[in-house]
Amino acid sequence: MTITITAFERSPDGGKGLARDTRVRWALEEVGQPYQVRLVSFRAMKEPAHLALHPFGQIPTYEEGDLALFETGAIVFHIAERHAGLLPDDANARARAITWMFAALNTVEPPILELATAMLLEGDKPWHAERLPLVKDRVRGRLNPLSVRLGDADWLDGAFSAGDLLMVSVLLRLRSSGILDEYKNLAAYVARGEARPAYKRAFDAQLAVNTGKPSPG
Amino acid sequence: MTITITAFERSPDGGKGLARDTRVRWALEEVGQPYQVRLVSFRAMKEPAHLALHPFGQIPTYEEGDLALFETGAIVFHIAERHAGLLPDDANARARAITWMFAALNTVEPPILELATAMLLEGDKPWHAERLPLVKDRVRGRLNPLSVRLGDADWLDGAFSAGDLLMVSVLLRLRSSGILDEYKNLAAYVARGEARPAYKRAFDAQLAVNTGKPSPG
């Protein structure tokens, strides 16, 4: 059955790979599943046809036969559950990899989203300069223990998993802030993620959409 | 095998049920699994023994035989995957219920966490009064489409699921703000969750810890 995902017609990041379709593309590339992409404009995302797929009017969505999903974490999990390559076989190791998926999205990403909001939506507010260090410290409040736990390991728990895929994707959003570079092992962890051939293919595919050039794949 | 979770020795909310152990207690009550609770102090949460279980130094954790998990969403999912009552049998319906789990934690909860942060950590800042309406509007930006999608249904997608358990838990944090009452169907949805016998047992158990009185169960 054909897999179809949605992505921005033009990503707000201009092709830096930070839009959430990159996470889904990466998962599909890791497990070797081909997929089609339907591009949606900002206007179309808020229209009934798209809202029927995604109640919050966002991307990505995932369609396969009569199954329609939204929410990046759930889509990545669905792919990981059905195809080998993103979750370990051992039951306990699998449960721990899923734990890191949720940790990436519900413990590490919220303060990073708050930092993005402070920059994008409150950058012109009178409190911005004084408040920004507080927000950055809340991000460090998550990165400190994450850095301790990772230590000098390559990945968070044994082999690369969907937990690493999401954690690297979440941390990538920090690069422009400079905070990631305060943690050598986390910066190297993110670089390891970006060096994976599947990530590169996913990145190139989303870049091709945003530059209008065909993907080399 | 005995299931052991951790909870606050004294919850910051004084027993309102907003600490995350309530979510795990609720899931265990829904599927009828007995569990033990190990209470941890704020100091003990940041010590090596607890950090080995939970790298971010929080509660709850989940131990069962040689499996140790952290992160509420992952624990609720683990319980839902192993015991009947929180995920539908049909594969597509199951994937959609999991989608709502992630939507609760990664789409709806982040702005609610930001509102909690604004109240708890920035309530004394000079920008608080002017900034608060912006933060509340970002919460409404999620509740508006959620309210539309729920409509007059009892639960988000068919029968009650782990997706509803997490969504109700996330929305409960909004009650003191008054925002929940702006959405009649969401307020009724949360009340339906609270009326479930399993929720009541979970709530009473966490309350007993915080009042020092034994649970009626």
Automatic annotation (TrEMBL), chains A, B:
GO terms for molecular function: transferase activity. Keywords: Transferase. This is Glutathione S-transferase. It comes from the Bacteria. PROSITE patterns: GST_NTER. It comes from Archangium violaceum Cb vi76. The keyword Transferase applies. The keyword rRNA-binding does not apply. Residues 8-87 form the GST N-terminal domain. InterPro entries: Glutathione-S-Trfase_C_sf (IPR036282), Glutathione_S-Trfase (IPR040079), Glutathione_S-Trfase_N (IPR004045), Thioredoxin-like_sf (IPR036249).
